[in-house]
Write a structure and sequence with these properties.
alpha/beta, Rossmann fold, 3 domains, six-stranded parallel β-sheet, 36% helix
């Protein structure tokens, strides 16, 4: 049902059509392409199962504020059931527009070929304006075959709009006033910094006010790892010292982050205690949502920084606060969280992988333990990207996202980090890598189970490992890679890490798969204890708070 469009795109030329092996993979690739370019990625699919296979990727773009355009084919207009009570008339007829409306900024069902130019223009605008996100266009087969004029007429299609509310200057004045009496200020940034294309502005902002900075999962790449103001990654599995800073600061400015449950913990009274919170977001519905009584500003971050940069530098110094946070880090760094571990320590391995991967322009992760180990320990350089599925939390993201990233950065290497479970979900896209000769370095942190849920079962289900260890297994990934024509190797011991990474990067322009075997009981620590403040993390016996 999409063949007419694909055929015409091919015949017209000028468009690089990347044929994926699964529509979900195509959607994830479009997502990653958009995150790097800050322009909509585009994924196409047939009707019925093709369209429904896009849904996870569409939802991921919606929750993570990623601009994207999804185009689906549909049965001919005269084969559609319309208002009839029957389930279906045309083969594979599915009302995908109604299905995806809750997870798109707009969804269009085309009924007249003359509307297509205007709808395409509007789809692009909607996907980019305000808080970015996905738009879907559903085009019946008979309409795809109609010639239309190239000049788009005006469209009355409805999209999202965001009104700027509040005075930027008043907000900045109040924030500066709060800093004058603050001893423990902090800046928290989310993906809004990337979505707003203001990563350069955020660095200038924290340096101007001498603020320590923590990041959400989707903002890890907004500040280089070695920047002196960087503290770390916060959240349920965040760096222990970063969560401490977030929980105990007295002034907090939040830029482009929605303060969701995994960032704040469920104990909102403790999180809110003894701190003034300044919150800037382009989406008004995110302000004073979960966290109440914030001082808010409903503008895009670019507008905010354009006004803020005009203010004077007040010369703030918070040396004791920086020392206190650093002391927390020294007492228990990320590499010391896993005590008496057997074999390879994944946090230490991620540091080694980072050191070996300076040529990479992007890292992608799957969802699960691999994602959290990477977020806790990756050493991001300037110009490097870190891409992961946040709000949707979709396993199978890393490999196709690496494909989208590789096309976006035009030939530079990409590192795709996966777990053994997530890797199997879109394993078929190995062929897309081979066919397109993409320099993707695949790293599988293989704990031979669905580790994050297995750890959950340890805590809450008396070590009953149904469907995570029992009833689960994985193939020999080295043999799988070789079957696709990709060189690969497997490591198990710490002494093999250097050799494995050397092979991974032996030829930067060739794909390679490195399978890293981990002990099945390797956990992700620290982890916030459910129902407690974000600062209370397990294992608690790893840190004597009185010593800090």
């Amino acid at each position: 049902m999409i063949t007419s469009i694909i055929d015409e795109m091919h015949r017209m030329g000028g468009i690089n059509i990347v044929s994926m092996h699964h529509e979900q993979g195509a959607g994830f690739a479009a997502d990653a392409y958009a995150r790097i370019n800050n322009q909509p990625g585009v994924a196409l699919a047939t009707s019925g199962p093709g369209a429904t296979n896009l849904i996870t990727a569409i939802g991921g773009c919606f929750f993570d504020s990623v601009p994207a355009i999804f185009i689906t084919g549909q049965v001919n207009l005269n084969e559609q059931k319309g208002d009839k009570p029957t389930r279906q008339i045309g083969f594979q007829e599915t009302d995908i527009v109604s299905v995806v409306r809750p997870i798109t900024k707009a969804a269009f069902a085309v009924t007249d070929a003359e509307d297509i130019p205007a709808i395409l223009e509007k789809a692009y605008t909607i996907s980019m304006e305000g808080r970015p996100g996905p738009v879907l266009i559903d085009i019946p087969m008979n309409i795809q075959n109609v010639d239309v004029q190239n000049t788009p007429p005006e469209s009355d299609a409805e999209g999202y709009s965001y009104a700027k509310t509040g005075s930027i200057s008043d907000f900045i004045t109040e924030f500066q006033s709060a800093l004058k009496s603050s001893k423990r200020p902090l800046c928290l940034v989310g993906r809004g910094v990337r979505a707003g294309a203001v990563t350069d502005k955020i660095i200038g902002f924290i340096e101007k006010y001498n603020l320590p900075l923590v990041t959400s999962l989707l903002a890890i790449d907004t500040i280089p790892y070695n920047h002196p103001n960087r503290v770390g990654f916060i959240g349920t599995y965040g760096n222990r010292w970063a969560n401490y800073a977030l929980g105990t600061c007295d002034v907090l400015i939040v830029l482009g982050s929605r303060l969701d449950l995994r960032q704040t913990g469920s104990d909102m009274d403790t999180f809110r205690l003894n701190k003034r919170i300044f919150h800037v977001d382009i989406d008004e519905s995110e302000l004073n949502n979960r966290v109440k009584d914030c001082i808010t500003l409903n503008v895009g971050l670019r507008d905010f920084f354009e006004q803020e940069i005009k203010t004077d530098n007040a010369g703030f110094v918070f040396e004791d606060w920086f020392k206190e946070i650093h002391c927390r880090y020294l007492k228990l760094p990320d590499t010391n969280e896993l005590k008496a571990i057997k074999g390879i320590n994944p946090n230490k391995f991620i540091h080694s992988l980072s050191e070996a991967s300076h040529q990479a322009k992007a890292f992608t992760t799957d969802v699960g333990n691999n994602q959290m180990w990477a977020a806790q320990s990756i050493e991001i350089l300037p110009e490097q990207h870190f891409l992961s599925s946040g709000g949707m939390g979709a396993m199978g993201y890393s490999l196709p996202a690496a494909i989208g990233a590789a096309f976006a950065i035009k030939g530079s290497p990409v590192v795709a980090i996966s777990g053994d479970g997530g890797f199997q979900i879109n394993i078929q896209e190995l062929q897309t890598i081979v066919r397109n000769k993409l320099p993707i370095k695949i790293v599988i942190l293989n704990n031979h189970c669905l580790g994050m849920i297995r750890q959950f079962q340890d805590t809450y289900f008396d070590k009953c490992y149904q469907s995570t260890v029992w009833g689960y297994d994985a193939p020999d990934f080295v043999k799988i890679a070789n079957a696709y024509g990709i060189e690969a190797c497997s490591i198990t011991e710490v002494s093999e890490i250097e050799t494995g990474l050397s092979l991974l990067w032996k030829d930067p322009q060739q794909p390679f798969l490195l399978n890293v075997n981990l002990d099945i009981h390797t956990n992700v620590y620290p982890k916030t204890i459910f129902g407690n403040p974000i600062t209370r993390m397990e294992p608690e016996d790893n840190l004597d708070l009185d010593e800090v």
